[in-house]
Write a structure and sequence with these properties.
Elements: E1 6-11, H1 15-27, E2 33-37, E3 53-54, H2 66-76, H3 83-103, E4 117-118, E5 128-129, H4 135-148, E6 153-157, E7 159-167, E8 170-178, E9 184-194, H5 215-221, E10 227-228, E11 233-240, H6 250-253, E12 257-259, H7 282-294, E13 305-308, H8 314-320, H9 322-332, E14 341-350, E15 354-355, E16 361-363, E17 369-375, E18 380-381, H10 393-413, H11 423-439, H12 446-461, E19 464-465, H13 467-482, H14 498-522, E20 531-532, H15 540-543, E21 545-551, E22 567-573
Parallel strand pairs: 1-2, 1-9, 2-6, 9-17, 15-18, 19-20
Antiparallel strand pairs: 3-5, 4-5, 7-8, 8-9, 10-21, 11-14, 12-13, 13-14, 16-17, 21-22
Bound molecules: flavin-adenine dinucleotide.
The site of flavin-adenine dinucleotide has 46 residues, from helix 1, strand 2, helix 4, strand 7 and helix 5.
């Protein structure tokens, strides 16, 4: 299929991709832009975001300031965040919220009619702006509605990006597969933005949607480019048991209690959370739940604890957290007005990702920008979250840096010619690879292998990690990679062949899982979300550094099923001009 050359291609229609596209469409209306998304943009995981977006507006507490927000973010990151990027994030936050409001986003209001704000874990002031507990829904719908009326944007919805066109050290476009027709298009572009979201589906229990499989990270890794800080995976404390879907932190923001089997608010038992109780950051809260369960104090001795909101009263529950109540009723059969909700930690957010500079340019292993390639949002690692993200900071990152990525691309594409790309050769290579996969004779179903990978990753790289488990996990994942050529695809069709897409997504999941295991093995300390039982202390002397992981023998054009076997690591300094590391307590 023929898609014309573009000035910019954006991969991903979530909050980041939509915000970036809108920035380009509005500020650079002469540029031709395609937004490609494997699901319709409105179905991107951003739509599920619930609790809020942080900004020091000072509405509920006039003493709040962006520097407080910056400090909270750096402390929350266990001092691994790059502080200049954090300064951009927090300083731009108020303006970003106001701009979204001008685009039509209906934030909840306080009694004086201003944008309402609520407390959130790890934030020292109440600064999460929200639309009840459906914040992502409110924001994404407005962005996409604004985008659809832009004349210079082509929307390729339900197209799957298979690979980057990366030649002579430059990115020159993408190769994508149309789900509806089963055809392939090589699309030359002066610039490509990856806004492909997270990778929760590496784990079996996750709050993420089915499409969060780390494709963008895998696209970059297969070109031999690095991934940064992959050992840092956030487990959200309150996944509804047993489904794993999220009960928003807004529920604790509004005052919910976490209770063990004895009915105790157990957060008081742990030094790191004694002061802020349920509003300690997520890494600490998740570990405390896991420790309660391990000590036999889960409910009925089982693997979950209780989240109790009954004391908030019916009116507060219905007004502030209606979606959490709906979820409890629908997915656990529990009405939180009558009984506590069963919860346990669930894989939620990826702090690691594609390394970028503060203008969203993707960096190679020598920290040099890769011409033509940009990344932002959850798939990127700026790094503003370091070892642990604070709640409400991700929607903010997507909006601030989505816009920034769009503006950088708009500025920079002017200097680049439309790349010359051997379109037929790329299309033929992809079509042949698909035919090969469909003809492959094996007995292994991709869903079975995916489940195995999830079990390996959960055992080796879950909330608690240690050397022997990580080594074994890494080896098992390498073996899982070898078994890829035994996969059998039942559906041979070309119209909405979702089974084929699941195989590609599994390839992404495997790449990401191996990167997590390798980075987690290297980091012999406990920092933020990365907790090594064999190295329980933070060690600033040796490990206050970013990890870069890359697959040495992934070469451009090589078959990803048979290459990428060795994983290598290098390190990069943390940018920390303002706040010096201290002990982290809440
Ligand atoms: C349940 C839940 C609640 C959350 N609540 C909050 C909150 O209250 N506050 C907060 O700050 N954060 C929250 N987060 C985190 C936040 O929502 C996400 O980090 C953020 O929305 C990610 O946005 P994104 O644009 O980077 O990616 P996404 O919204 O995940 O979008 C990814 C896009 O990439 C596309 N894509 C991926 N791979 C391909 C491919 N191969 N080809 C084509 N397209 C592709 C997808 O189609 C999709 O459009 C929550 C997350 C979850 C899961």
């Amino acid at each position: 299929m023929m898609i014309p050359s573009q000035d910019a291609v954006i991969v991903g229609g979530g909050l980041t991709g939509s915000r970036a596209a809108l920035a380009i469409a509005q500020r650079y209306p002469h540029l031709r832009l395609a937004l490609i998304s494997k699901v319709h943009p409105i179905r991107s995981h951003s739509v599920a975001a619930q609790g809020g977006m942080a900004a020091a507006l000072g509405h509920l507490d006039a003493t709040d300031h962006w520097l407080d927000h910056a400090f909270d973010t750096v402390k929350g990151s266990d001092y691994l965040a790059d502080q200049n990027a954090v300064a951009i994030l927090t300083q731009q936050a108020p303006q970003t919220v106001h701009e979204l409001e001008k685009l039509g986003v209906l934030f909840s209001r306080d009694e004086e009619g201003r944008i309402a704000q609520r407390p959130f874990g790890g934030h020292s002031h109440p600064r999460a702006c929200y639309a009840a507990d459906k914040t992502g829904h409110a924001i994404l719908h407005e962005l996409v509605a604004n985008l659809l009326v832009q004349p210079n944007v082509t929307l390729l919805a339900e197209w799957y990006v298979l690979r980057l066109i990366y030649e002579d050290g430059e990115v020159k476009g993408v190769v994508a597969y149309c789900l509806e027709t089963g055809t392939v298009a090589a699309i030359p572009s002066k610039a490509v933005l990856l806004a492909t979201g997270g990778y929760g589906r590496v784990f079996g229990t996750t709050s993420n949607d089915y499409a969060s499989t780390g494709d963008g990270l895998s696209l970059v890794a297969r070109e031999g480019l690095p991934l940064q800080d992959m050992e840092f995976v956030q487990f959200h404390p309150t996944g509804l048991y047993p489904a794993g879907v999220l009960i928003s932190e807004a529920v604790r923001g509004e005052g919910a209690y976490l209770l063990n089997d004895r009915g105790e608010r157990f957060m008081a038992h742990y030094a790191a959370s004694r002061d802020r109780m349920e509003l300690a950051p997520r890494d600490i809260t998740s570990r405390n739940i896991a420790l309660e369960v391990a000590a036999g104090r889960g409910i009925g001795g089982g693997s979950y604890v209780h989240l109790d909101v009954r004391h908030l009263g019916r009116e507060q529950i219905l007004q502030k957290i209606p979606f959490a109540r709906e979820e409890g009723l629908r997915l656990a059969g529990v009405d939180c007005m009558e009984a506590p909700l069963p919860v346990r930690p669930t894989a939620h957010y990826s702090m690691g990702g594609i390394p970028t500079d503060p203008d969203c340019r993707v960096l190679d292993r020598h920290s040099q920008p890769v011409p033509g390639l940009y990344a932002a949002g959850e798939c990127a690692c700026l790094s503003v979250h370091g070892a642990n993200r604070l709640g409400a900071n991700s929607l903010l990152e997507c909006a601030v840096f989505g816009q920034r990525a769009g503006e950088t691309m708009g500025r920079e594409v002017g200097d680049r010619p439309i790349p010359s790309v051997a379109i037929p050769a790329y299309q033929e290579q992809a079509t042949t690879a698909i035919a090969h996969l469909l003809q492959q004779s094996g007995t292994l179903r991709s869903a079975v292998l995916h489940r195995e990978v999830q079990e390996i990753t959960t055992a080796a790289c879950g909330i608690f990690r240690e050397e022997a488990g990580l080594r074994a996990g890494g080896q098992q994942l390498a073996i899982a990679q070898e078994r890829f050529n035994q996969i059998f695809v039942d559906d041979k069709g070309s119209c909405f062949n979702t089974e084929l897409v699941r195989v590609w997504q599994l390839q992404s999941v495997l790449t990401v899982a191996r990167a997590i295991a390798a980075s987690a093995l290297w980091r012999q300390e406990s920092r933020g979300a990365h907790c090594r039982t064999d190295y329980p202390q933070r060690n600033d002397r040796d490990f206050l550094q970013h990890t870069l992981v890359f697959f040495e023998d992934f070469a451009s054009g090589a078959d990803p099923q048979t290459t990428g076997r060795t994983v290598d690591l290098s390190l990069q300094a943390v940018d920390r001009p303002r706040f010096t590391p201290q002990e982290r307590k809440y």
